[in-house]
Design a protein that fits this description.
The structure is a homodimer. By secondary structure, chain A is of the alpha+beta class. The first copy, chain A, has two domains: 10-277, L-amino peptidase D-ALA esterase/amidase (4-Layer Sandwich); 285-405, ArgJ beta chain, C-terminal domain (Ubiquitin-like (UB roll), Roll). Chain A has eleven helices and 16 strands. In chain A, strands 9-16-11-15-12-13-14 form a seven-stranded mixed β-sheet, with helices on both faces. The model of chain A has no long low-confidence stretch (mean pLDDT 90). At the A-B interface, helix 2, helix 8, helix 9, strand 14 and helix 11 of A face helix 2, helix 8, helix 9, strand 14 and helix 11 of B.
Chain lengths: 409, 409
Amino acid sequence: MPVNLTPPVAAQLLPVAGVSLGVAEANIKRPNRKDLLVMQLCEGARVAGVFTRNHFCAAPVIVAREHLAQPDGIRALLVNTGNANAGTGEQGLRDARTTCAALAGLLGCKAAQILPFSTGVIMEILPVARIAAGLPGAVANMRADNWFDAAQAIMTTDIVAKAISRQVLIDGVLITITGIAKGSGMIHPNMATMLGYIATDAAIAQPQLQAMVSEAANRSFNCITVDGDTSTNDALMLIATGKSALPEVKAADSKAYKALLAAISEVATWLAQAIVRDGEGATKFITVRVEGGKDEAECKQIGYAIARSPLVKTAFFASDPNLGRILAAIGYAGIDDLDVAALELYLDEVLVAEHGGRAASYREEDGQRVMQQSDITIRVVLNRGTAHARLWTCDFSYDYVKINASYRS
Amino acid sequence: MPVNLTPPVAAQLLPVAGVSLGVAEANIKRPNRKDLLVMQLCEGARVAGVFTRNHFCAAPVIVAREHLAQPDGIRALLVNTGNANAGTGEQGLRDARTTCAALAGLLGCKAAQILPFSTGVIMEILPVARIAAGLPGAVANMRADNWFDAAQAIMTTDIVAKAISRQVLIDGVLITITGIAKGSGMIHPNMATMLGYIATDAAIAQPQLQAMVSEAANRSFNCITVDGDTSTNDALMLIATGKSALPEVKAADSKAYKALLAAISEVATWLAQAIVRDGEGATKFITVRVEGGKDEAECKQIGYAIARSPLVKTAFFASDPNLGRILAAIGYAGIDDLDVAALELYLDEVLVAEHGGRAASYREEDGQRVMQQSDITIRVVLNRGTAHARLWTCDFSYDYVKINASYRS
């Protein structure tokens, strides 16, 4: 079960002026399941995004990048679950374009004004006819207050839908931000089997919008790992409709830009953490903080060595303070001049190791007590600089194996 | 259960002149278990080794490196299981030296002529008194034909003891090579929770012996991964007693050197594969071959991305040809200029993917048939060069989680 993650409440998800959402059951992988989402944007809305760095990136990722680069504004996003349209070669590209054209026909815009997204099984042909048949229903279903259903429609192995709204007052104008995301397995930066959509009614110039989504992703989705697998289909899209009264945000050093970035990063971080809390088979939510490093890169490198280690993750699943496994992971993280005698390891506030070994003050029962918790922080203090990094992961359980050994069945 | 790995037969393990082995039950972690091994070497025997590259390397690794560097010959190896003496700081170093001194007293040599090795739980203090109390029994037990018991005495989570002998005729002289190894989890190159000891009665000059053990490790133990965790305690030691009639091997380009390297590499490869076949929870033995790369490094990089992926490994556990996960792993392996449309993916002889997607000839039942096997080869042909690499791994099962969630209990 997800770790300290409660389902969203529909009434708490705020509409974003300029965005309408419609969902449908298109029978893409199995019947009786919302598996198709259309997000229609008002004229003038701007969209920017970051995508997976996997070289085997999916056809919709390639097509969405193309469409973002063309001069006409984006008018809709089309998301299907149940099939990733990845590892599908030339036919995958044709299929992604066909679904865009089908939606464009219904909405009265160009196919290039549609961004396609797919998530699900890799290397199977996209059932284009079923998607096309589902689109009129999704379009008929479009409403501004439909974020709850939208969050549900993009779920795959997610147990809990992930959605959140925030409002922030900027220069006297109340700005609304609502975001949804999906993802549970194949989660590792740059990025994850992860789709995220965040919309705001602020107006943001295109270069600043792109900078903002990149920075928000770095603070959030690029700080999580479930299983170390980087997916073929990840995308985080930031939509700015410009429907609020706030003047267009243009300068990255403006107060409005910083306030918006902070609020959007907060939404992105909540969604990213929700993905880890709902990580496949997760029973523990683990924050890994690495401090006192020479630079952020080495802090992240050590953090990911810990967060990816199956031995560390299974020990957390067992609530077993077999914490030497964390030392081993630090030791093989690949920092050539690391002085292991200089670092400290903490579990929450409990000092576990220093001077290259177990701390004199450490008592097994203290470690045991922290390991029983569902939210735990591993803190490594390197004592060789001022840089730090923080990331989030979950434990590794029987259910992870169960879910992934039976994903297609 | 181990994958196509049968226990060694004691009578097939050949003594190596100049090596005596004795084991004892020292109650290091639990009673009624062989957990202590002494290997005494004849005067004039040479020893060379390779060790873990983990910065949190264990105290015995540090002490063994020191002792190998001193001028007096090594006269014995001392191995305990049940406690890794890693993450134990200064006390760990003192403890390792104390056990060497205790054995040296019994054998009438210097403490620096003993190499210590430990494997087991990390970050717990070595029970020196119990080891010292067990040593006289191990020394009294010493025999040349004791390799079978020695292989059992170094097991931790291993299900099957790993030992093999080979004989090779070089310049008319029959040379014997016998090796033992242990390891099952925390297995990843450079190196593994892995201890390996290979002895031969050939005489080999020290520089050539060091070159030979490094090369043999690169061909074998550095080509395996179970869980991607590099251990704190790994060591592979090569012993050359010089008791055979073969003249000392001095030149790395000599016929004798090459013949010995081939035979020793064969023994090392058998042992390394045995570790994977007995990998924690393993139900499948998987060979990953990456061919047609620009250089060996990129082939290994792609191979390890596949071999480490929990999603690939759980799919193999389930015998589910969800082979898009292999494409995803290739895509995130970090080869910047990789053309995914140019590569081919095979499962044994079955062409699965080409032109960036599923091969036209691929039928699910063919993939399903190969996935049912217990020995499977994943072959990736990059079509961009002539380099290749091969490595071995296993699948990821419920039992891996079970074993590692309860390792200390």
